[in-house]
Amino acid sequence: MRFEYAPAPESRSVVTLRDSYGLFIGGEFVAGSSVFKTISPATEEVLAEVTHAGPEDVDRAVAAARQAYERVWSVMPGRERGKYLFRIARLLQERARELAVLETMDNGKPIRESRDVDVPLAAAHFFYHAGWADKLSYAGFGPSPRPLGVVGQVIPWNFPLLMLAWKIAPALACGNTVVLKPAETTPLTALVFAEICQQADLPPGVVNIVTGDGSTGQLLVAHPGIDKVAFTGSTAVGKEIARACAVSGKRLTLELGGKAANVVFDDSPVDQAVEGIVNGIFFNQGHVCCAGSRLLVQESIADELLSALKRRMMTLRLGDPMDKNTDIGAINSRPQLDKIQELTASGEAEGAERWSAPCPLPDRGFWFPPTVFTGVSAAHRIAQEEIFGPVLSVLTFRTPAEAIEKANNTPYGLSAGVWTEKGSLILWMASRLRAGVVWANTFNRFDPAAPFGGYKESGFGREGGRHGLEAYLDVLGGSDV
Ligand code: TAP
C-alpha cells in the first residue's frame, strides 16, 4: 500500500542569499578576478554569483594564512584554540536551520538529510576537535607534537559543509591555518561558514575560503606556500594531486572514491537488511564515497531479498528536496547526471538487467530514479567503476570465501557492510575485507571519534578520531603547542 503525504515544504525564508559573494581572505570578504553562478540543481534557478579565485587571489589567501599561522595561531595555547572551536560549533548549531536549507538549495539533497545528518555532524566535528586542542600531548604522538603550518584543503560537492568540518576542525585544533576550496557547484555553505568565523572572532587569516573551479584547486595544491594538502574527491584528481605534490616536501592526505560491497548472508533479518541496503545506496542520491553500491547477496535468499528490496524502493519519494517527506533529491549537476546515464547504459549494453522504481521525474532540474541492476558480473563496468548515483549493482555468492573474493575485487577499499546474526562471521569477514571501514548490521554510520579513510585507490590517511589528528601534526617532536 502506498501512503500519500501532503506537501511539507521547509521555508526558504530562513536563508538570506546575497546577490554576490566575495572570497574570504584575512578575515574579510574581498573581490577577486572573476565571477561565476551557482544554481539549484532541483530547479536550475540561479542562487547567487560567486567569485572565482585566480593566481593572485590564491597568493593572497596563502599569505594571510601564513601570517596568521606565524603570528597568532601556532603560538596560541591549545586551550585558547579550543575555545574558538567550541564557539564555532555552537554557532553552527545556532544557524543549523539556515545552513540546512542553504545546503539543500545549493546541493539538491533532501532537507531531511541536511537537517538531520550534514549539519549536526559538522557541529559534532568541531565539538570533538575542540576537546583535543589542549590534549595533543596525550594523543600518543609523543610529548610535543607540532602543527605543520599552512594547509591547502580541497573538498567535493556531496557533503559540502560536512567535508569542510572534517577538514577544518582537526587542522585548527592542531594549530594549523587553512585555505579551503569548496566545489564549484556547492560553495554557499562554506561562505556562510566564513561569516561564522567572523562571528566567532576567529583571528583573521586562520581560515580562508577561496571559491572557484578545478583550476583554483590546482593553484592551491601547487602553491609553494602550502605545507600540507588535504584532498577529498575523485581518484582521478587525487592521482593528479599526488603527482603535483611529489618531491615538494608537502604532506598529503587523499580521501578518494569507493565501490563498497554490502554483503548480506542468508541468516540476516531481511527487513532490517533491506533498510540497510536502501540507506547504503540511496542516501544522498548515492553521492556518497562509501555508498554500498554493490550488493553481494547469498544465493539462497537472493530472490526473497530482491523482491523485498523492490517493494521498499517503490515507497521512496523522489522530488522537491525542500519537502520534509522527500527521500531522493536532485542529482547535483548536469555533468554528474550525464556520468550516471553513461554508466547505467553501459550496464545494459554489457548484459545486466535494469529495474528502476516507477516514479515520475520533475520537468526541471537533474534527476535519476532509484535503480537496481541484477545479473551483474564482477567484470562489468557497473561492478568496478564508481557511479556516484542512486544505482545498485547486485551480485550473488555462495560461501563466505567467495563473498570476500568478490568484495575485494575492485581497485577501491573505502568501506563495506556485513549482514548476519553470527558475531564470529562478522569478525571473520571484517578481518579479510580490504576496506577502511566495515559496518556490521548497519551502514553509513559516522562519528567524529571514528577514523575514516581508505585502502588502495580510495586514498590514504584517516579523518576523524585520534588517527585523524596525525595528518595535521608533525609527530617527530619539537616544542609544545
Ligand atoms: P573531483 O572532481 O575530484 O573534485 C573534488 C574537488 O577537487 C572539487 O573542489 C574540484 O573542483 C577540485 N578539483 C578538480 N580538479 C582539480 C585539480 N586538478 N586540482 C585540484 N583540485 C581539483 O570530485 P567530485 O566529483 O567533486 O566529488 C566526487 C568524488 O569525491 C567521488 O569520487 C567520491 O567518492 C569522492 N569523495 C570521497 C570522500 C572520501 S572521505 N573518501 C568523501 C566524499 C567524496 P570543482 O568541483 O570546482 O571542479
Strand count? 20
Bound molecules: 7-thionicotinamide-adenine-dinucleotide phosphate
Radius of gyration: 22 Å
Indicate the mean pLDDT.
96
Global geometry: globular
How much beta, percentage-wise? 15-25%
How widely separated are the two ends?
A: 61 Å
Helix content: 25-40%
Strand sequence of the main sheet, in spatial order? 14-15-16-13-12-17-18
Could you please describe the fold and organization of this structure?
There is one protein chain. The protein has 481 residues and is an alpha/beta fold. Helices cover 38% and strands 17% of the residues. It is built from 15 helices and 20 strands. The chain has helices at residues 55-73, 78-94, 96-107, 111-132, 160-173, 188-199, 214-222, 235-245, 270-282, 302-313, 334-349, 381-384, 400-407, 423-432, 465-470, and strands spanning 20-21, 23-25, 28-30, 34-39, 46-52, 146-147, 150-154, 177-181, 207-209, 228-232, 251-255, 261-264, 294-298, 353-356, 371-374, 391-397, 415-419, 437-440, 459-460, 473-474. The strands form five sheets. Strands 14-15-16-13-12-17-18 form a seven-stranded mixed sheet, sandwiched between helices. Strands 9-8-7-10-11-19 form a six-stranded mixed sheet, with helices on both faces. A hairpin with a 2-residue loop joins strand 2 (23-25) and strand 3 (28-30). It is globular and about 65 Å long. 7-thionicotinamide-adenine-dinucleotide phosphate (TAP) is lined by residues 154-158, 181, 183-184, 213-214, 217-218, 221, 232-234, 237, 240-241, 255-258, 289, 386, 388, 414, 454, 459.
